[in-house]
Amino acid sequence: MFNTDKLNEISSKIKGIVNDSPLGDAEKNIHALLKGMLTKMELVSREEFDVQAEVLRNTREKLNQLEVKLAELESLQKHQQ
């Protein structure tokens, strides 16, 4: 069996070495670069997309209701003339 404490200790040491090395800086720089590129591409998170999709669904529903009401009002106006 593996000694979990020993594996965690080794993992922590490796993380410390990577974070203190140029490799740690490179990881931060790559992350910042990717984030900047995604921002320029105007990509949104899945959560934001879902929220906007729900807003669009609600807007379409409201538009459909208004179109029905407008048709009813137009019909009433034609009958009154």
From TrEMBL:
InterPro entries per the UniProt record, alphabetical? UbiK
Functional summary from the UniProt entry: Required for efficient ubiquinone (coenzyme Q) biosynthesis. UbiK is probably an accessory factor of Ubi enzymes and facilitates ubiquinone biosynthesis by acting as an assembly factor, a targeting factor, or both.
**UniProt feature coiled coil, ranges:** 46-76
One of its Pfam families is: BMFP
Q: Give the highest taxon in the source lineage.
A: Bacteria
| Metabolic or biological pathway | Cofactor biosynthesis; ubiquinone biosynthesis
What's this protein's name?
Ubiquinone biosynthesis accessory factor UbiK
Q: Which PANTHER family match?
A: UBIQUINONE BIOSYNTHESIS ACCESSORY FACTOR UBIK (PTHR38040)
Sorted keywords for this record are: Coiled coil, Cytoplasm, Ubiquinone biosynthesis
Subcellular location as annotated: Cytoplasm
